[in-house]
Write a structure and sequence with these properties.
Length: about 425
């Protein structure tokens, strides 16, 4: 792979539409596949992660047709219509695909094996295999079913009452999908609220699901009904433009039709607390989710202290928060972020290493990072940084590069295809050089 030089920008300006939400898209494909009748999805997230989920269902006999504008037509096979796959199921880089599918596969009356790429095979899976085993599934895998690949022999499951040891929407969703098929009630208690796209989408497809504070309950379903869905824009993709416009002088960007689920909008709330100038308007509803337009203008930022409570709704924006911290006035401390060590890469280490190479004063903590902000103005740049094949690190460092004098060389930018294949094309639309 050749290095890519990300050149500096004078400012960013204009209007943009970001791709469909990756998390919501996974849920739409999963539920559309096991619903009855046709599900039409417009604006499906175009990245490799979502392609993996589509391919998994095709491997289990579901017909999924693709049309322009990221539209897909799924002919749902019903809850009991999936076929035993003939080969190993490949989740690529996608933790959401792997973990959510393990819940669904645990309830199917057949044998399956699921694996992923080098990064995914290092990520913790016991958090799903343990409770799914408790529900009755037979799961084998490396290190006691802690790592992919795992094999699953689905069984008739029984509902359980489970308190999640980590705040994880993926684990919660996996158990809720299994709970659709289990006897009795399945109750998942979260230590802290996490994104609730699965709950919203399940309700939309007709499942019997309720929430009581931190407890989500699902009853077994007899059938789900296909839907027509329009996927909201991905706030985690919009976030790159929010930060670029906040830090580059004289910038102003409008982002249309962005998903505004409160459990995903942490980046907006945190940026505002740091002093950013962001307004939201034209709020409506799509897919059972709030959606709106966002306008962001350059503003001076100040350092901030962040912990678990704020981070949960900005869990994927850690790399970007580090970029904001560099251009803020004063110190930023991010703690209780240990989950970031087991994402697509160790994002704490990746960002600490990158910032050090850029000459930023930074301290890596076991569970976070301390960054001495430099305030307004550009970094020198002119260095080569490693993205570790992690899409969000690559995109965050690219935003950082815009606010340098000499740009930044990145070793791998192809990985952005995991969530945002047209990231560089869209960025060029708003960059002024
Ligand atoms: C996701 C949940 C989060 C997030 C990931 C997508 C989801 O992971 O980091 O990018 O779609 O449910 P965890 O549930 O592991 O926190």
């Amino acid at each position: 792979m050749d290095d890519t030089l990300i050149r500096p920008a004078v400012r960013v300006s204009g209007e943009i539409v970001v791709p469909g939400d990756k998390s919501i898209s996974h849920r739409a494909v999963i539920l559309g596949s096991i619903a009855e009748g046709r599900t039409q999805i417009v604006g499906l997230a175009p990245g490799d992660d979502n392609r993996r989920t589509i391919e998994l269902f095709r491997a289990m006999g579901v017909s999924i047709k693709e049309a322009p504008h990221n539209t897909v037509f799924i002919d749902g096979v019903g809850m009991y219509g999936l076929k035993e796959p003939e080969d190993v199921l490949y989740a690529g880089n996608s933790g959401t695909t792997a973990r959510l599918m393990m819940g669904l596969l645990s309830a199917q009356p057949f044998f399956s094996v699921i694996t992923g790429d080098e990064s995914l095979r290092t990520r913790p899976m016991a958090r799903v295999t343990e409770p799914l085993t408790e529900m009755g599934a037979t799961i084998y895998g490396r290190k006691n079913a802690s790592y992919l690949p795992v094999s699953i022999k689905g069984e008739s499951l029984k509902g359980i009452n489970y308190r999640l040891p980590v705040a994880s929407a993926q684990v919660k969703s996996s158990l809720l999908l299994a709970g659709l098929y289990a006897t009795g009630e399945t109750v998942v208690e979260e230590p802290q609220r996490t994104r609730d796209h699965t709950e919203r989408m399940l309700a939309l497809f007709g499942a019997n699901i309720t929430r009581d504070e931190l407890r989500v309950r699902i009853l077994p379903a007899t059938g789900l009904k296909g839907r027509h869905l329009r996927i909201p824009g991905d706030i985690s993709s919009a976030a790159f433009f929010l930060v670029a416009a906040s830090v580059l002088e004289d910038s102003e960007v409008v982002i249309r039709d962005v998903g505004l689920n409160p459990m995903r909008c942490g980046i907006v709330d945190i940026l505002k607390k740091m002093g950013a100038c962001i307004e939201i308007f034209n709020i409506k509803e799509e897919c059972g989710e709030p959606v709106g337009d966002i306008i962001v203008k350059e503003a001076p930022l100040k350092g901030i202290e962040l912990g678990r409570a704020e981070l949960v709704a900005a869990i994927d924006e850690f790399p970007l928060l580090c970029v904001c911290a560099v251009f803020a006035e004063g110190r930023t401390t991010i703690r209780e972020a240990e989950e970031l060590r087991v994402k697509e890469s160790d994002r704490i280490e990746a960002m600490a290493e990158a910032l050090k190479k850029l000459g930023v004063e930074v301290e890596e903590l076991e569970d976070g990072i301390v960054i001495e902000g430099r305030g307004k103005g550009r970094l020198k740049g002119g260095v080569r940084l490693e993205t570790r094949g992690d899409h969000r690190i690559a995109m965050a460092l690219s935003i950082m590069a815009l606010n340098t004098e000499d740009g930044i060389e990145l070793d791998d930018t192809e990985c952005v295809a995991v969530s945002y294949p047209d990231f560089y094309k869209d960025l060029e639309e708003v960059v002024v050089r």
